[in-house]
Amino acid sequence: MDTLEIETQISPNQISFDFEGGDLKEESLLFTETLIKPLNHEYIKDEVLFVVVRVQNKLLAKDLPSLKICGKKMVDWVLLAGSCCEEMVIEDCEDIINRVRSINTDKKYIALFYSDTPLLDKATFFMIMDYFASRSMNFLQLTRGFVVKTDFLKNNPNFITSSAGGNDIADLLICDCANNLVKTQETLNERITNYHIKNGVTIFGRNTVFIDADVEIDSGVVIYPNNILKGECIISAGTIIESGNIIENSIVLNDCEIKGSYIKDSKITQGKKIDYGNKIVKEVW
Questions:
Q1: Nearest CA to 53 among 61, 43, 42, 64?
Q2: Residues 6+ apart with CB under 8 A from 16
Q3: CA 104 – CA 145 distance, rounded (Å)
Q4: Whole-angstrom Cα Rg for the chain
Q5: What DSSP line would sit under the chain, residue for residue?
Q6: Contact 148, 138 (CB under 8 A)
C-alpha cells in the first residue's frame, strides 16, 4: 500500500445537466394548459441574465450559505439551473427591485431567483422562460423570484414588487425550515439516483443509498442498500458495492467488490476485493 495525495478527475460542476435527461416537461408548472414551445432555447442563452440572490436563514442553520445538500451548496444548485446564461450573484437587501434595476446589462430579460430554492433545475427554468416569452409578458411574479423585461424595469422607476407570493411552482420550494430542507434533500437524492439508474447503474434499496452530485458512476455498476457515496468519486464499470460502505473523494477502478468499508481520498485498483471493516484513507490499494 502506498500513501496517496489523490487528485480525482472530476469535471467542474459535474451534475450540470437536466435530471430529466434534457426532455422538457409538457405541462406548465404555472398553469394547467400546455405551454407554447419554441423551436429552440437559444434565446435563453443569448437574452437572459440569470440573477441569484444569496439569502440567509439563521433560524434554520447558523451558516445557511455554507450548508451542503447532496454535496453542493444551495446557491450552486440554483446556479446550475441557469448555467447556460450569463449569471450574477447578489446579496439580499430590502429593496431588491431597485438593486436589480441598477444592474448594467444588455440582456433582454432578467430572471431572478433566490439561493434557498435548490430544487430549481434547468427544465423548470426553461419552462418559466417559455411561458413568459411566448405571452410577451413584461413581468412575471413567482413564489420566490421573478422574470422581467429589462427595458420595462428600467423605464418604470415606480414599479415595485415583492420577493414572493406569485405563481406557485413546486420546484421553488423554500428551504426555510427543517421539514423543507429534508424534502429538498430527498428530492435531489431521488433525481441523482434516477439519473444513474437511467444511465445503466443498478441501485437496490434506492431510498437507503445516498449519492452526492459530483459522483461519477459507470454503467454496469451494482450498488446494494445502505451506502453513502460522498464528494468527488469515480466508480468504474463492473464494480459491485455491497451494503454498508462510505466512499468519499475516491476512485474505484473496474471490477472491484467492496463490503462494509470506509474509503476516503483513496484509489482502489482494478479487481480488488475489500472485505468488511476496512478503513482506507489516502492510500492506493
A1: 64
A2: 80, 83
A3: 19
A4: 21
A5: -EE--------TTTT-S-TTTTPPPSB-SSSSSBP---S-SHHHHHHEEEEEEE---TTT-TTGGG-EETTEEHHHHHHHHTTTSEEEEEE--S-HHHHHHT-----SEEEEEETT-TT--HHHHHHHHHHHHHTT-SEEEETBEEEEEHHHHHH-TT----SB-SB--GGG----SHHHHHHHHHHHHHHHHHHHHHTT-EESSGGGEEE-TTEEE-TT-EE-SSEEEESSEEE-TT-EE-SSEEEES-EE-TT-EE-S-EEES-EEPTT-EE-TT-EEESEE-
A6: yes
CB atoms within 10 A of CB 18: 18
Residue written as grid cell 455498476: 221
Q: What residues does 3 pair with on adjacent strands? A: 283
CA distance readout (Å), 224 to 156, 194, 240, 276 = 58, 15, 8, 14
The sign of the torsion formed by the CA atoms of 54, 56, 60, 65 equals: positive
pLDDT tens per residue, range 107-144? 999 999 999 999 999 999 999 999 998 888 999 999 89
Q: Give the pLDDT score at 256.
A: 95
Q: Which residues pair with 141 in a beta bridge?
A: 146
Amino acid at 112: L
Cell of 139: 413581468
Say what percent of the chain tops pLDDT 70.
80
Cell reading at 34: 400546455
143: left (phi over 0), alpha (psi -120 to 50) or beta: alpha
